[in-house]
Amino acid sequence: MSTAVSSRRLATIGVIGALTLQFVASATAGPIALPGCPENCGGVQVPYPFGIGRGCFHEGFNLTCDEAQHPAKLLLGDGVEVLDISLPDCTVRIQTKISWVEYAAEFNGSWSVPAPDGPLMVSTARNSFVAFGCNVLAKLIPYGTVLSYASACAAACVNTPDVSSCSGVGCCQTSIASLGSDLPWYGIQVKHLEGETGNYYHRAVFIVDQDWFSRVEAAMASNFSALFFGNRFHEKVVMVDSVPVVLEWSLDLIRDAGLFVLSPIGPQSSDFRCLSSNSFSYTIIGNYDRRRCNCSHGYEGNPYIADGCQGTEILTSASCQIFTHVMEPASMCLGHTDAHQRKASRAFQA
User: Fold this and answer.
1) Distances (CA, A) of 127 to 7, 123, 326
2) Which long-range contacts (CB under 8 A, 24 or more apart) does 320-329 make?
3) Where are the domains of the chain?
4) Full-prediction pTM beyond 0.90?
5) Of 56, 29, 47, which is closest to residue 88 (Cα–Cα)?
6) Looking at the DSSP assignment, which residues form a beta bridge with residue 51?
7) Residue 131 forms beta bridges with which residues?
8) Which is nearest to 131 in space by CA: 152, 109, 150?
9) How far apart are CA 38 and CA 54, in angstroms?
10) Is the separation of the CB atoms in 136 and 148 below 8 Å?
């Protein structure tokens, strides 16, 4: 009798194991793009609401794929390269060119995201403002705000043959001031440091992904030091001409109404989720109409398309039923829905 029961339990584990494999397969098969639309370009995934070609993107999220390049490059706006897109973080990393200005004591400029009228903004939390130069004062000034506020840093030059950080000698860096929301464009102002004379050639200011810059800061500072002081004559010193920048996006509850579904969250109350079931939306900095979406806990995928969020809840519940019926630690299944438990139980009993 004991042997028969043990055999039945082993057979059941095999059946549930097979079901578990099926659940895993379904959980990894969620779509990221609209049907019939490209899902990647040059190895970069293109999840909706972004898309390539007519009918494949939500308004303001159109990209192009330059297949004449080898490998192909994903482009935003007027040919700005896209390095990656993160749905959970609502970020887009792009590669932007920087210009080295020679023999100009002062100059003004601007920095804007590609297609500044769209949903993309400069991430103040993920970027830094950096200036290279001698005796330079650099300012990053928000456009379109009533506040006269700027992010600023200054760098002097002393006879230091080797510099290994942007801490005020030959280069400087600062965080980008957050004014309650991210912005699509900034003004840039570069002046000669008051009280200093001469030494104003080779200057550059730029916005840059702070994580990336932290990895290359020492090399860039050292190269600038070598370029200015000429202490590495045996080497050809090359300064970078492009850097990555992180952009963020959000949706507007009215403008982007087609991406939201009214979803009850409790008695006499409701809020909005995105198109996929098992998703939710959340407000940005207390602005009820400004939203981002993500898959619910236990689910992964694309919340902006139907059935885009695929989860492991069924897989976990089925596994719990194995333990409950065979090994009997019922506490292993706490926190899973009754519907999932019943589904797994029926599979076990069959």
Assistant:
1) 60, 6, 53
2) 320/344, 321/16, 321/345, 321/347, 321/348, 322/12, 322/13, 322/16, 322/348, 325/9, 325/12, 326/9, 326/12, 326/13
3) 2-29+312-349, 38-88, 91-248
4) no
5) 47
6) 62
7) 172, 205
8) 152
9) 11
10) no
Beta-strand relationship, 91-97 and 242-249: antiparallel
Are the beta carbons of 213 and 126 closer than 8 angstroms? no
| Cβ–Cβ < 8 Å for 124, 273 | no
Residue-level pLDDT at 322: 39
Q: What are phi and psi of 2, to 5 degrees?
A: -65, -40
The stretches in the chain having pLDDT less than 70 are 1-29, 103-104, 144-148, 159-162, 195-201, 228-238, 265-270, 312-350
- pLDDT value for 134: 84
Q: Are strands 204-209 and 136-142 parallel, antiparallel or unpaired?
A: unpaired
The DSSP code sequence of 176-212 is PPP-SS--SEEEEEEEEPTT--S---SBEEEEEEHHH
Tokens (6 digits) for 270: 């409701």
pLDDT value of residue 290? 87
Domain 91-248, second-level architecture:
Sandwich (2.60)
DSSP calls for 132-156: ESSSEEEEEEESS-SS---EEEEEB
DSSP 318: H
